[in-house]
Specification:
Elements lengths: L3 E9 L3 H16 L2 E3 L2 E4 L9 E10 L3 H14 L15 E7 L4 E3 L2 E3 L3 H4 L1 H10 L12 H7 L8 E3 L1 E3 L2 E3 L18 E3 L1
Antiparallel strand pairs: 1-4, 1-5, 2-4, 2-11, 3-4, 3-8, 6-7, 9-10
Helix pairs in contact: 4-5
């Protein structure tokens, strides 16, 4: 079976300290060891609502893209996502497929890589933490370089702690440039 490197964006603005650890549990039980970024607090985009907690997770899977997408949607609904919710609304657990290997383009209702990666600080920052050297299809610079040149003045991020199985997932001091961080990022393999 072919293994696929996948990155997922997780978010919640309804009881995030409850639903994000549940989401991590579900992913760990299905996919094993994961790379987990720090968690960041950011304002809701596209609607007025409570702030979101966001993080990025790296997994390896043998599932085909459409199978994986169905699994992720089922996990969201299992944990209270409203079947009729609109795109811009509050979420108990939101799991976005950011990348699937080097796939680029539209695959049924999935567009890869997800365009929000380079548009939103709450995706790009944590993604660059766990995969700083990754160059997205269609880009010429790696994620660390994309974050370094990103104008985050319109989207503030606040690092927040997230407790998972008695472990407090770390908070990194948010800095404007990766060069000031040594090492570049702390990768957290959990599972």
């Amino acid at each position: 079976m072919t293994e696929h490197q996948v990155y997922l964006g997780l978010g919640s603005n309804i009881r995030p300290q409850h639903f994000l650890p549940l989401g991590l549990d579900e992913l760990a039980s299905r996919f094993g060891a994961m790379d987990v970024s720090c968690t960041y607090l950011s304002t809701a985009i596209g609607f007025e609502g409570p702030d979101f907690h966001n993080l990025v997770v790296g997994i390896v899977t043998t599932h085909r893209l459409n199978e994986l997408s169905q699994i992720l949607r089922a996990l969201e609904y299992q944990h209270g996502r409203d079947l009729n919710c609109t795109k811009f609304s509050s979420r108990t657990l939101d799991i976005d497929l950011l990348t699937y290997d080097n796939h680029e383009g539209q695959f049924e209702d999935i567009v890869l890589p997800r365009k929000e990666i380079t548009e939103n600080a709450f995706v790009l920052r944590p993604f660059a933490e766990i995969a700083p050297d990754l160059v997205l299809p269609g880009q010429t610079q790696n994620l660390a370089a994309l974050w370094q040149k990103y104008d985050a003045t319109n989207q503030s991020l606040t690092p927040v702690a997230l407790d998972w199985h008695g472990t407090r997932l770390p908070m990194l001091a948010l800095r404007a440039k990766f060069q000031s961080e040594q090492p570049l990022a702390t990768q957290h393999s959990l599972g």
